[in-house]
Specification:
The complex is a heterodimer. By secondary structure, chain A is mainly alpha-helical. Chain A is 69% helix and 2% strand. Chain A folds into two domains: 191 residues, no CATH class; 39 residues. Chain A is built from eleven helices and two strands. A two-stranded antiparallel ribbon of chain A has the order 1-2. In chain A, a hairpin with a 2-residue loop joins strand 1 and strand 2. In chain A, helix 6 packs antiparallel against helix 7 and helix 10 packs parallel to helix 11. Chain B is an all-alpha fold. Chain B has a two-stranded antiparallel ribbon with strand order 1-2. In chain B, helix 1 packs antiparallel against helix 2, helix 5 packs antiparallel against helix 15 and helix 11 packs across helix 12. The longest helix of chain B has 24 residues. The chains are: A mainly alpha, B mainly alpha. Chains A and B meet through helix 8 and helix 9 of A and loops of B.
Chain lengths: 245, 328
């Protein structure tokens, strides 16, 4: 269950590379790996805390004003994280700049609050926050590593390609961010898409069931074998039952 | 049903032209400028051109092999891209520059968007702008060397004493606020000035452009509006001396002729309608002038064309003709 959620966050439903959320920090804060790590971990901490509290308060928050309530919770934690970073890591705080307070409007956090934390118990919500935050940080670090190594010849500020390497300025600039991200999204699409060799008539009935059983934000998967689907449906039903209790 | 009547949907009149014929026409039109570039900059220019074309062809073949798509190498579009890319490089660049540029042009700009006809920007120009990452190589223009006979080493990977041989292009001089004193307008017309391999000789490029016009590969709309807009705006701007002189320096200098005849007219990245082409050409000219006068680089035809490339979709939508019987 936990491993499945983690895999979901990092690979199958990666917030950045599959859901394409949080593009703004991913483009702006990936010029070097340490910035990416900073913004990634800050986002992850906020995501963990907001998921925790939204999940705790999910029965108290009236449905009509839930978005406002979520934003208040998220903004509170973002302010706290921002102050902590500025107090203890002033260097990092300066290089993250405006993107630190902008975590408030990061779609990943509100997205997870809306689609997961508000419907699930505390522990799965915490796990979801960790998985999604980790997946986001991981994706940011991949983008930043590519950009920093090609664009400056360094990784975490350490020279890795030798003195004679003539760095590619292009990758440090915004256009390089777009191209790197685009190529990674395409690669991710290639890696996570299942081969579509499914016998049609035998699978259709199962497929429609699996759609309804799956949680809203999950993409409809077409696994190669029927057994996988059946197993998944069983798991989903179990999860749903646990949540109902 | 074995009779002589053939039933088929329109169009009924066909031309033998296909991509390959068009591309070979472009290659023929570019040949005089290529020969001139080699005469002026020595065998080094030929090496750069060869490396560029070969890498473009190899990258295209490999990419389509790896992705198991039909080979398109025989339409010669990769050769044209390679040649145009080399035309946009100074002859003194290290030889890895055309290889990296070819990779960017073919793989990133052309093939990732689906190959010939589907690219959203001109691959050679996009690669040139990408190569500005190494601006010290891209903006060090060797002196025309055919008079003093001092040639750069043809096959050395990189040339160390670029700084010693580098000289300012006429546009760089204008950017610094003066009319070039050592380069006359006649020099610029025939191409006896510093610059990239393919852009220096205005008269040979115009000749090539006229050939393409005569072969109906391109129409007059884009080159005329492009160059015309630059001419008019430069005439009005005039920094010093005679307006006519200044205007001639602006339209003969840099990559304007190369850009207007060969790059802006690329089918995949220029508007379909005639009105659209007029707007597109004027836009290219306007942006060129604005960037030249107020931008960071002395030369800006590439940036102007690339930006207008991205607007082609809108221009086509905007100038969509009313179909027969349709409403306005």
């Amino acid at each position: 269950m936990m491993i499945k959620q983690l895999k979901e966050g990092v690979l199958d439903n990666n917030p950045l590379l599959i859901q394409l959320l949080g593009i703004c920090p991913a483009l702006a804060m990936t010029t070097n790996v340490s910035n990416a790590l900073g913004i990634g971990i800050a986002t992850m901490v906020v995501l963990l805390l907001s998921n925790l509290f939204i999940s705790l308060l999910r029965k108290l928050i009236p449905n009509e004003i839930r978005i406002a309530a979520y934003i208040v919770i998220i903004a509170g934690f973002v302010s706290a994280v921002e102050m902590l970073i500025k107090a203890y890591l002033p260097e990092l705080g300066r290089s993250l700049g405006i993107f630190l307070p902008l975590i408030v409007v990061n779609c990943i956090i509100l997205g997870r609050a809306e689609t997961f934390a508000s419907k699930n118990k505390v522990l799965p919500s915490l796990m979801d926050g960790f998985a999604m935050g980790f997946g986001f940080t991981f994706a940011l670090i991949v983008v930043a590593s590519i950009r920093e190594i090609i664009g400056a010849g360094t990784w975490f500020g350490v020279n890795v390609l030798g003195e004679s390497y003539q760095s590619v300025l292009f990758f440090i600039m915004p256009s390089g961010a777009f191209i790197t991200l685009g190529c990674l999204v395409a690669l991710m699409k290639k890696l996570t898409s299942f081969p579509k060799k499914v016998p049609k008539n035998s699978i259709e009935s199962l497929e429609s069931e699996s759609v309804t059983a799956e949680k809203v934000e999950e993409p409809v998967e077409i696994p190669a074998e029927e057994e996988v689907i059946v197993e998944e449906i069983k798991e989903e039903v179990e999860v749903a039952e646990k949540n109902d209790n | 049903m074995n009779n002589d009547l053939i039933f088929s949907p329109s169009p009924h009149i066909k031309t033998p032209n296909n991509s390959r014929v068009l591309m070979i026409d472009v290659l023929v039109a570019l040949t005089p400028a290529l020969i001139w570039g080699v005469i002026v900059f020595g065998p080094r220019a030929l090496t750069v051109v060869t490396v560029s074309i070969l890498s473009c062809v190899i990258f295209e073949t490999l990419f389509r092999l790896i992705l198991k798509r039909p080979q398109t190498i025989l339409d010669f579009s990769a050769v044209v891209t390679g040649l145009l890319l080399a035309f946009n490089l100074p002859a003194s660049v290290p030889l890895w520059i055309p290889i990296v540029g070819a990779f960017f042009a073919i793989v990133i700009v052309k093939q990732l968007f689906g190959g010939i006809g589907k690219n959203i920007m001109n691959p050679a120009l996009a690669a040139r702008v990408f190569l500005y990452s190494w601006s010290k190589h891209m903006t060090a223009f060797p002196e025309p060397s055919f008079l003093n006979g001092e040639h750069m080493p043809a096959f050395a990977i990189s040339i160390n004493n670029i700084d010693a041989t580098a000289s300012a292009t006429p546009l760089t001089v204008i950017k610094q606020g003066a009319i070039p004193s050592d380069t006359s307008i006649f020099d610029m017309l025939i191409g006896n000035c510093a610059g990239t391999i393919g852009e220096i000789s205005a008269v040979l490029l115009i000749l090539g452009g006229l050939f393409l016009l005569a072969r109906k590969v391109i129409t007059w709309h884009i080159p005329v509006t492009f160059i015309g807009t630059v001419a008019v705006l430069a005439f009005l701007k005039n920094i010093s001396g005679s307006s006519i002189d200044f205007m001639l320096y602006e339209i003969l200098g840099g990559g304007l002729m190369l850009g207007a005849f060969f790059m802006a007219t690329d089918y995949a990245t220029s508007p379909v309608t005639k009105t659209g082409r007029l707007i597109y050409g004027a836009g290219c000219g306007l942006l060129t002038v604005l960037f030249r006068f107020y931008g960071g680089y002395a030369e800006s035809v590439s940036f102007a064309i690339l930006i207008m490339n991205l607007l082609v979709w809108y221009i086509d939508r905007f100038t969509k003709p009313v179909r027969f019987g349709g409403k306005n």
